């Protein structure tokens, strides 16, 4: 695919996320690569891997999902954490390398909940209700067979999970030096398990209608903001689809989206990160608005990051026209760590080859050389 570089200029305009000045509108989407030490400390391989995207022109890197506490948050063996000082210090070289290359970097804070496949701190899983997750564990993250049946979290455990996000955010900003944090509210993990009608049957204040089911995400956002103060970027990622239920749609459709985006617009976030399989497509019906457009209608000023099959620059520009301020690329960035530079120069883009993530999703030697 050859690209007309003149037609992609909006992507190359600067943007500001709270106090972080970004050189352009292109971000690397969060991608778990299970390449930390068994104790959850980032490795030199990860430093080189993240640095490469900034050298390739991405203005912002969003890290892989990082676990937040030493209770139920860890999802995978060799997933990095932000749950103690060693892990937090281990992120410093990653942050330093991306800054030195002229980029900014945000830490994605993730609680796996019922989708946890391995956790060095706990032998069981926990979620909103004792509902076995759909689907099978992910083999490329060392999973095998069905997910375990989670235990329903107590009120106290929910409070501890919120505190875990807040404490991890403090580690991210004050120890590691990240430019911000992104709360992982998407893709089937804990916060999305609370939001989802078929995994949350709670009858206390953490369940019920869509507003009740969204409450945990809102409380986490508020707690993180309180913990790190007003001057650091805080985002929240949201989706309909899940790693274990790809085509899920919110039953409340556009009215639900209005509740979700209206609520998230009032909890102190700088940005909302929306991920859909094809981010430009109508969210609920054949002809309605995309989720990006619905989020923009509810939030005239919040930054909106869009993700989902946007590696074709025309698609990326289309979501900017729909109301997004930035685009995030996942597989397109893996295939083309120099995507922004290539697009600017009108060069060919490589297609993503899933062999890169096989047999495990670990960072491959080819991904740490320029
Ligand atoms: C290997 C891999 C790991 C991923 N890990 C995460 C993750 O840790 N957190 C997250 O929010 N999304 C994760 N995702 C989803 C991506 O951020 C993105 O939403 C998805 O790849 C779709 O975007 P794309 O079409 O640009 O690839 C992952 C995707 C891939 C391919």
Compact overview of the structure:
31% of the residues lie in helices and 15% in strands.
Write up what this structure looks like.
The protein is α/β, with parallel strands linked by helices. The chain has a single domain (5-368), classed as Aldolase class I (TIM Barrel, Alpha-Beta Barrel), CATH 3.20.20.70. 31% of the residues lie in helices and 15% in strands. The protein is built from 12 helices and 12 strands. The strands form 3 sheets. Strands 3-4-5-8-9-10-11-12 form an 8-stranded parallel barrel, surrounded by 6 helices. A two-stranded antiparallel sheet has the order 1-2. It is globular and about 55 Å long. It binds flavin mononucleotide. The site of flavin mononucleotide has 23 residues, from strand 4 and helix 11.
Give me some keywords for this one.
globular; TIM Barrel; two-stranded antiparallel ribbon; 370 residues; alpha/beta; binds flavin mononucleotide
Topology:
Elements: E1 15-17, E2 20-22, E3 26-28, H1 44-55, E4 60-67, H2 85-90, H3 92-100, E5 104-110, E6 126-127, E7 151-152, H4 155-176, E8 180-184, H5 190-195, H6 210-213, H7 215-228, E9 233-239, H8 253-264, E10 271-275, H9 291-298, E11 303-307, H10 313-321, E12 326-329, H11 331-335, H12 339-345
Helix pairs in contact: 1-3, 4-7, 8-9
